[in-house]
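Lecture notes, part 5. Sequence design as translation. It can be helpful to think of inverse folding as translation between two languages: the language of shapes and the language of residues. The source text, in structure tokens, appears below.
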């Protein structure tokens, strides 16, 4: 007998506004363009709340990375790419963002309606408040301050499909009996009654299906020898207003249908580790004959040497 997993999850009720990112001017060196969203069932990105821009996601040795700024508030932006409800169990630094537990995939999370998108901006404190996600030194992260520093520097999203109710079996029509005249008396009446019954059932099912969406609320550390700056974690930031409601959700299976993992650190550390490519220094071809710039050392005009 299969075990079913029910969860009382949080239904998001607001759609966040999105601001466009200014494009940087063209340069002679064009490094590989990083993406800003990953995921299949849901598209996940990390947003700098100060600028409204989605942070570039860099792929390096099979892992995804974003560069954060110490002191900057950020959000986990999620877009449901499916035409059905999806449950997202989210963790930051190995801690469940809703309950504060050491994160596990079978814990509570957020439920997104079909095609819904929203920003998760902090640690859930109540149905109406969060403590903002804020990049900070790893030692000042919420996970470190609560005695769980081992997984600082990673964002995780475990995604679950919803179990769909099994369709009802079709009604069984009794085999017609012959009447005294050798015919099938009352057959037309029985067919009419059966059609009427099925029509009523379909009408009731249709009304229930249309009412259901209306009732739903829309809702590691890096391995390296040395680092130029302290590693980043996520602090327990200032309180902000954020409303959610509650809904029920039955997972189609106990294990996640997809897991999205994004690691983060400061830009300096990611450049030093080779995660973020840096442009090579410019090179000028030496022209034939005398060069107007034979040296490249900065400075001022020195005095000439003495003649004698």
């Amino acid at each position: 007998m299969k075990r079913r997993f029910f969860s009382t999850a949080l239904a998001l009720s607001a759609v966040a506004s999105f601001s466009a990112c200014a494009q940087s001017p063209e340069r002679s060196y064009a490094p590989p363009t990083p993406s800003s969203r990953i995921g299949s069932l849901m598209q996940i990105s990390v947003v700098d709340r100060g600028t409204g821009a989605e942070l570039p996601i860099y792929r390096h040795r099979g892992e995804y990375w974003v560069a954060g700024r110490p002191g900057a508030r950020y959000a986990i932006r999620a877009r449901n790419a499916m035409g059905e409800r999806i449950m997202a169990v989210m963790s930051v630094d190995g801690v469940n963002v809703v309950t504060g537990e050491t994160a596990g995939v079978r814990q509570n999370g957020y439920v997104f309606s079909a095609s819904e998108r929203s920003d998760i901006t902090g640690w859930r404190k109540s149905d109406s408040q969060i403590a903002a996600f804020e990049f900070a030194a790893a030692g000042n992260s919420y996970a470190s301050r609560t005695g769980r520093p081992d997984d600082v520097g990673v964002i995780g999203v475990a995604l679950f499909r919803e179990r769909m109710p099994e369709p009802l079996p079709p009604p069984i029509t009794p085999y017609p009996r012959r009447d005294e005249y050798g015919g099938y008396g009352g057959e037309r009446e029985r067919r009419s009654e059966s059609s009427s019954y099925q029509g009523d059932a379909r009408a009731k099912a249709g009304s229930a299906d249309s009412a259901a969406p209306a009732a739903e609320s829309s809702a590691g550390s890096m391995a390296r020898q040395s680092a130029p700056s302290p590693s980043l974690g996520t602090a327990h930031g200032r309180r902000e207003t954020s409303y959610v409601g509650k809904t029920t959700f039955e997972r189609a299976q106990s294990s996640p249908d997809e897991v999205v993992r994004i690691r983060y650190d400061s830009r300096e550390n990611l450049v030093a580790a080779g995660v973020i490519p840096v442009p090579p220094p410019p090179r000028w071809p030496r022209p034939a004959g005398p060069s107007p710039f034979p040296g490249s050392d900065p400075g001022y005009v020195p005095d000439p040497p003495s003649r004698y």
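The translated text above is only one of many valid answers, since several sequences can fold into similar shapes. The two ends are 104 Å apart (CA to CA).
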